[in-house]
Specification:
The strands form 2 sheets. An 8-stranded mixed beta sheet has the order 1-7-6-5-4-2-3-11, sandwiched between helices. A 4-stranded antiparallel beta sheet has the order 8-9-12-10. The mean pLDDT is 96. The chain folds into 2 domains: 238 residues, Aspartate Aminotransferase, domain 2; 121 residues, Aspartate Aminotransferase, domain 1 (Alpha-Beta Complex), CATH 3.90.1150.10. The protein is of the alpha/beta class. Keywords: Aminotransferase, Pyridoxal phosphate, Transferase. InterPro entries: DegT/StrS_aminotransferase, PyrdxlP-dep_Trfase, PyrdxlP-dep_Trfase_major, PyrdxlP-dep_Trfase_small. This is Putative PLP-dependent enzyme possibly involved in cell wall biogenesis. Belongs to the DegT/DnrJ/EryC1 family. GO terms for molecular function: pyridoxal phosphate binding; transaminase activity.
C-alpha cells in the first residue's frame, strides 16, 4: 500500500461513500479500461465472481460443457460447476505452460464430430504469462464457441502488444491479496460488448429491476465492489508498472544465479509477449540436479522460506476426478517438477540471495 491508496480511502470515508457504489468504483472501472485497453468494465467482489458472471453471460447453463485449462487454480473451474455445467480439461504447451492450441483443436474436432461442442472455452493466462491467443481465438470462432479469458494472474502482461483478457468475448481479472496489485479482495470483468458489462453490473447488484419497489425477475448476486476497495484499486493501478518491473527483476536475479545449474529450467517467456513474472517458476530434473523438487522445497522450508509446487492439474484434483480431459501429460510433468519461488514485489536483494543460497545449499 502507498500514499495514493490511503488518500483515496480517506476520501471515501470523508465523503461517506462506503457501499458498493460511488465515484471510486466508477473511476476504477474507467481507469482500468484505460490501463488494459478495454472498452467496458464492471468491478466486482472477486475474480471468481467475475468468472461466474462471465460464464452466465455467454449462456452457459446446466448440462453444458466448458473447456478449461487444466494447469491452473481450482477457481478457474469452480464457477463452471456453480452453473451445473461440466468442465473438460485441456493440456498445456511447454512454450508458455498455458492451454495448448493443438490439444484444443483436437478436442474441438472430436466434440464437433459427435455434435457436442462446448458452450465456452476458459483460457487461463498462467503465472503472469499470456496463452497463445491468436490460434485459440481463431479455433473458437471457427466452431462458434464463446471465449472467456481468465487473466487473474496476468494483469500487466502483453500478447503482441495488447493486454491478455481483452481478446475474447469476456475477460476477468483478480485483485486478491496475492495478485500483482490488490484491493484486498476484488475482481474486474471486461468486454468490448457494452451489453455484457451492463448485464454483469445488473446481476452483480442482486438483479434488482428498475422499479420504485424491490422487484426481481432474475436471480442475482451480491458481487459488486465497495467504493473503499475501489479507491485502493485506483492507487494500486498507478504503480502497476513498478510492480511488474519488480517481479521481472526478481526473475532475472534468480535466473542469473541458478539457470546455469544442471537440471534447472525456468518457465520460458513465450515469444509472443511480455510476462509479468507474477511468480518466478522453475522445473527441476532430479536426475541432472541430484535431488527432486520436493527435497528443494523442504530445504527452503527449513530456512523459513515458503516455496510451493506449481498448480496441481485440475484433472488430478479429487473434486474433478470424473471430468474428461484431453492430454494432461505436460501439465502433470510440470506439476511433478515445478516449483514457485518467493516473488513478492517488495523482496530485497538480501531476501533473494537467501533463497538462492538455500537452493544452492539444498544439494548438500
Amino acid at each position: 500500500m502507498g500514499d495514493r491508496e490511503h488518500q483515496f480511502v480517506t476520501e471515501a470515508f470523508e465523503t461517506n461513500w462506503i457501499a458498493p457504489i460511488g465515484p471510486h468504483v466508477d473511476a476504477f472501472e474507467r481507469e482500468f479500461c484505460q490501463t488494459v485497453g478495454s472498452s467496458h468494465a464492471t468491478a466486482v467482489s472477486s475474480g471468481t465472481a467475475a468468472l461466474h458472471l462471465a460464464l452466465k453471460l455467454v449462456g452457459v447453463d446446466a448440462g453444458d460443457e466448458v473447456f478449461c485449462s487444466s494447469l491452473t487454480f481450482s477457481a478457474s473451474a469452480n464457477p463452471i460447476v456453480y452453473l451445473g455445467a461440466k468442465p473438460v480439461f485441456i493440456d498445456s504447451d511447454r512454450i508458455s505452460w498455458n492451454m495448448d492450441p493443438l490439444v484444443l483443436q483436437a478436442a474441438l474436432e472430436q466434440r464437433a464430430s459427435i455434435g457436442k461442442l462446448p458452450k465456452a472455452v476458459i483460457i487461463v493466462h498462467l503465472y503472469g504469462q499470456s496463452a497463445d491467443l491468436d490460434p485459440i481465438i481463431k479455433l473458437c470462432k471457427q466452431y462458434g464457441v464463446a471465449t472467456i479469458e481468465d487473466a487473474a494472474e496476468a494483469l500487466g502482461a502483453t500478447y503482441k502488444g495488447r493486454s491478455p483478457g481483452t481478446f475474447g468475448d469476456v475477460g476477468i481479472f483478480s485483485f486478491n491479496g496475492n495478485k500483482i496489485i490488490t484491493t484486498s479482495g476484488g475482481g474486474m470483468l471486461v468486454s468490448e460488448d457494452a451489453s455484457i458489462t451492463s448485464k454483469a453490473k445488473f446481476l452483480a447488484t442482486q438483479a434488482r429491476d428498475p422499479a420504485p419497489h424491490y422487484q426481481h425477475s432474475e436471480i442475482g448476486y451480491n458481487y459488486r465492489m465497495s467504493n473503499v476497495l475501489a479507491g485502493i484499486g485506483r492507487g494500486q493501478l498507478m504503480v502497476l508498472s513498478d510492480r511488474v518491473a519488480a517481479r521481472r527483476r526478481n526473475c532475472e536475479i534468480y535466473q542469473q544465479a541458478l539457470a546455469h545449474l544442471p537440471g534447472i529450467e525456468f518457465m520460458p517467456e513465450a515469444p509472443w509477449g511480455s510476462a509479468t513474472r507474477w511468480l518466478t517458476c522453475l522445473t527441476i530434473d532430479p536426475t541432472a540436479f541430484g535431488i527432486d523438487r520436493e527435497t528443494v522445497r523442504l530445504a527452503l522450508a527449513e530456512q523459513q522460506i515458503e516455496a510451493r509446487p506449481v498448480w496441481k492439474p485440475l484433472h488430478l484434483q479429487p473434486i474433478f476426478g470424473d471430468c474428461e480431459r484431453f492430454g494432461g501429460e505436460v501439465a502433470e510433468d510440470l506439476f511433478d517438477r515445478g516449483l514457485c519461488l518467493p516473488s513478492g514485489s517488495n523482496l530485497s536483494d538480501e531476501d533473494l540471495n537467501c533463497v538462492i543460497e538455500a537452493i544452492l545449499g539444498s544439494r548438500g
